[in-house]
UniProtKB/TrEMBL annotation:
Cofactor note text: Binds 1 5,10-methenyltetrahydrofolate (MTHF) per subunit.
GO molecular function: DNA binding; DNA photolyase activity; FAD binding
GO biological process: photoreactive repair
Sorted UniProt keywords: Chromophore, FAD, Flavoprotein, Lyase
Protein name: Cryptochrome DASH
Binding site for FAD: 220, 233-237, 273-281, 370-372
Family designation: Belongs to the DNA photolyase class-1 family.
Domain Photolyase/cryptochrome alpha/beta, first and last residues per copy: 3-138
Cofactor: (6R)-5,10-methylene-5,6,7,8-tetrahydrofolate; FAD
Species this chain originates from: Pseudoalteromonas ulvae
Domain of life: Bacteria
Length: 438
């Protein structure tokens, strides 16, 4: 009997160094490649009224177009489907008689639940999933998931003892699709690229080569907290989030760079930051749905709440704080924000505006071109003090951060941070009695 495989791309939108795709394609005689557009869940709808931003969708559009281009070089093509995964599987089971279904392992709890659900629904199919997005495989870890250290530093020390597997050899062949399969035109579904950050496997390879051909890695540790500019940080996050590049490919280029130019603290720090990403991946795998809980993984009581007008001010960049406003304007326009910027606006939402951190995380989920379930919700928990921070949360003082990172008002004026500063006027019964100052 002919083995017909359905491969579901998700956060692994590349053909090179994609263990899940490579191994799955070796198990089947014919292959259908699909990308399933995620529908907003009930949880998403609870925390926000808006949908994925144009910046985010335009970025995904580019990512998928470049994946399709690379698949075509291997005699394949990418099909885009807008339906729940179980419907997609049911469709191809009926129409193409698929026998196998493959994908890369997802860190998200709901995505894992969905994967288990389809296996229960269609037990007659063969299922396959492998790690395509992280540095280490589960079998390499010196601890079980339950024993994952509760904070980053001890975990990093374990990670540093491990060898990062080399990227796979170039993929030269994929089984062909079973027969002519109609596809939708990507342009009919997605808004155009906004011109700020390019997505996709081809762009990722170009960017990686440019970054490691530059002097930037030598001073990364000193520049990485800046707010503005082309190469103060690596700008790998969008590519990594959608899997247009693998962290192992980045590590291979980093090691080559170090061999040619010498290693220093800054080149090590690029690895160090990739280990943060790694940590949050395993953290999400361990804590599952607790990643989204108000009290976090620490089960901590918080006093923050939801104030619609304050949240609106934060989203629109109309708070009393010019730096926060400028950062939010940058996010809304481009879909990206520096790491220091994310820390400042997240801290403002939690500490100054006293808002439930999950609204901020959900807003980031819809805006970021590099949205990644583990890194986003894990970092938000960290700032809100309900996650892996041994100090129990962070408060970034906005005036101090402004003096440190935008002393000449360049960032604020570029993103019009002082154009619409509004006082926080809303009070509610918990603020009573209202003092002179409020
Ligand atoms: C509240 C908040 C939300 C965030 N949400 C996301 C998200 O959805 N997706 C995402 O990829 N990153 C997220 N980050 C982490 C970090 O801000 C971005 O990865 C980084 O700013 C991307 O820019 P870069 O690629 O130039 O990073 P660089 O500074 O050059 O770092 C190199 C790579 O290391 C990884 N990395 C660096 N810092 C972190 C970190 N704190 N946590 C996890 N990985 C890290 C990223 O993959 C990044 O591309 C968030 C941070 C905060 C504080």
């Amino acid at each position: 009997m002919k083995k017909i495989g359905l491969y579901i791309f998700d956060h692994d939108c590349r053909v090179l160094d994609n263990p899940a795709l490579t191994q799955f394609s070796q198990q089947v005689d014919a292959l259908i490649c699909v990308y399933v557009l995620p529908a907003p869940s009930t949880f998403d709808r609870q925390f926000s009224q808006t949908h994925a931003s144009d910046a985010q969708q335009g970025y995904i559009h580019q990512t998928l177009s470049e994946l399709d281009e690379n698949l075509r070089l291997l005699g394949q093509k990418l099909l885009l489907v807008q339906a729940p995964i179980q419907t997609v599987i049911a469709h191809y089971l009926k129409v193409e008689h698929i026998t196998h279904v493959g994908r890369s392992i997802h860190s998200g709890y709901y995505e894992q639940q969905q994967w288990q659900h389809v296996q229960r629904l269609y037990p007659q199919l063969h299922y396959f999933a492998a790690n395509s997005s992280h540095l280490f495989d589960l079998e390499q870890l010196p601890f079980t998931l339950d024993e994952l250290p509760t904070s980053f530093t001890p975990c990093r020390k374990h990670f540093e003892q491990l060898d990062v597997p080399a990227p796979l050899a170039t993929l030269t062949h994929l089984p062909a699709p079973p027969k002519h399969l109609a596809n939708v035109d990507f342009k009919e579904i997605f808004p155009p690229f906004n011109g700020y950050y390019s997505g996709g496997e081809i762009s990722a390879r170009d960017h990686l080569n440019l970054y490691f051909a530059s002097e930037a890695p030598k001073s990364y540790k000193e520049t990485r907290n800046e707010l503005m500019g082309d190469d103060f940080s690596t700008k790998f996050s969008g590519f990594l989030a959608h899997g247009a590049i693998s962290p192992r490919q980045i590590m291979a280029s980093l090691r080559e760079y170090e061999a040619l130019n010498g290693a220093n603290e800054s080149t090590y720090w690029v690895y160090f930051e990739l280990l943060w990403r790694e940590y949050f991946y395993w953290y999400a795998r361990q804590h599952q749905s607790r990643l989204f809980c108000f009290s976090g993984v620490r089960n901590k009581s918080l006093t923050t709440s939801f104030y619609p007008s304050r949240f609106k001010q934060w989203c629109e960049g109309a708070t009393p704080y010019p730096l926060v406003n400028a950062l939010m304007h940058e996010l809304n326009e481009t879909g990206w924000m520096s790491n220091r910027g994310r820390q400042i606006v997240a801290s403002c939402l939690v500490n100054e505006l006293q808002l439930d951190w999950r609204y901020g995380a959900a807003y980031f989920q819809q805006r970021l071109i590099d949205y990644d379930v583990a890194s986003n919700w894990g970092n938000w928990q960290y700032i809100a003090g309900v996650g892996p921070d041994p100090r129990g949360g962070r408060h970034f003082h906005i005036s101090k951060q402004t003096a440190l990172y935008d002393p000449h008002n360049i960032f604020i004026s570029h993103w019009h941070g002082d154009a619409n500063c509004q006082a926080i006027t809303q009070t509610d019964m918990v603020d009573w009695p209202i003092s002179e100052q409020s």
